[in-house]
Design brief:
Blueprint: E1 2-3, E2 9-10, H1 13-34, H2 42-61, H3 71-92, H4 95-98, H5 100-105, H6 112-139, H7 149-174, H8 178-192, H9 207-210, H10 214-223, H11 233-264
Antiparallel strand pairs: 1-2
């Protein structure tokens, strides 16, 4: 950052982008929780309720053969990242519709309206990490050296989620039914991803096919903190490559539709 002729700070494009992104993300979080009495707890209540339901069904009602013990930790380590992905992609379907006036009246790079959703949901995920720790300590889950993969999983998830958001956000403007189709796809992805079951529970013949779902490798890295047997380098490698490819496709789709989107909103 340098000073211009008037003595004001002259921000570089990258610095302006980061500053705008942070300001919009903080605004989102404040608006989201300003009228809520529970505030932060709402961001973890939904996955906790879901985890409680699945834990009860699969451990108290049925004799399950999937997952590892302690099963509640097994569930939470995948459900919390899933809520980040699900929330960011769902909100991306309305990213340009909700902020149409602001988008048209400012020169802020339009990708920021998707990236700020990924960042705000990511911050909520980071804020929920203490919940994982509490359940892990309470249930006696052992911490393994594979914890080093946790930040790697976060980076890959941010890349993948941003790519999906950049594809969905502009296309919804032209195909409004895509919003409902996205919800159905997310529901399918929930069961197609190792959340209530583990990677090791999949038939061997499906491992390679499943690897092309980036969430498989990403969730396995989160889980490896307590369940190292869930880690599969091949799935992580393929998932990482697909994540980067999705981001590239998202950038191309966004750039080719940006002008048309501005005319439509």
């Amino acid at each position: 950052m340098t000073n211009n002729a008037l003595g004001r700070p002259a921000w570089s494009p990258a610095a302006r982008y980061r500053r705008s992104l942070w300001l919009l993300t903080v605004r989102d979080l404040r608006v989201r929780y300003s009228t809520s009495a529970l505030g932060y707890f709402w961001s973890i209540l939904d996955p906790l309720v879901m985890a409680g339901i699945y834990w009860f069904v699969f451990t108290q009602v049925f004799h399950r053969s999937a997952g590892s013990e302690p099963y509640i930790v097994f569930l939470i380590t995948a459900l919390l990242p899933w809520m980040w992905f699900n929330g960011a992609v769902s909100d991306s379907t309305r990213a340009y519709i909700r902020e149409a006036k602001l988008i048209r009246s400012t020169k802020i790079p339009r990708t920021i309206w998707v990236v700020r959703l990924v960042l705000s949901k990511g911050i909520e995920f980071v804020a929920s990490i203490p919940v994982i720790i509490v359940f892990a300590v309470a249930s006696g889950a052992a911490l393994h050296w594979q914890v080093v993969f946790f930040p790697v999983a976060m980076v890959l998830q941010a890349i993948f989620t941003t790519g999906v958001g950049l594809i969905v956000a502009p296309l919804v403007i032209f195909f409004r039914d895509l919003e409902r189709a996205t919800k159905l796809t997310l529901r399918f992805l929930f069961y197609a991803s190792p959340i209530i079951y583990g990677v090791t529970d999949l038939p061997q013949r499906l491992h390679l096919l499943a690897s092309f779902n980036p969430l498989v490798g990403i969730l396995s890295m989160y889980r490896a903190v307590f369940f190292p047997d869930q880690l599969d380098p091949l799935e992580i490698g393929i998932g990482a490559a697909v994540s980067v490819a999705i981001l590239g496709i998202g950038i191309v789709v966004f750039r080719r539709t940006e002008r048309a989107v501005l005319k439509e909103i």
